[in-house]
Specification:
23% of the residues lie in helices and 0% in strands. It has 57 residues and is mostly helical. The chain has a domain at 1-31. The chain starts with a helix and ends in an 11-residue tail after the last helix.
């Protein structure tokens, strides 16, 4: 990354969410997610957030 891009990101760091502030908590960028399908959900929506580690297999 260029230093200019890093400086811009640092200057506007409050515009990004973090682990402590999930997506949707940024003022002016609130997000309300509603699934418009009923259970059982399709497999793509039931996938774990992270793939299983290779050691677990």
């Amino acid at each position: 990354m260029s230093k200019e891009l890093i400086n811009v990101c640092h200057t506007y760091k409050n515009a990004f969410s973090s682990d402590n502030e999930p997506l949707g908590t940024i003022k002016g960028h609130e997000v309300d997610i509603t699934l418009n399908i009923d259970r059982p959900y399709p497999p793509v929506l039931r996938r774990p957030a992270y793939p299983a580690s290779r050691r677990a297999s």
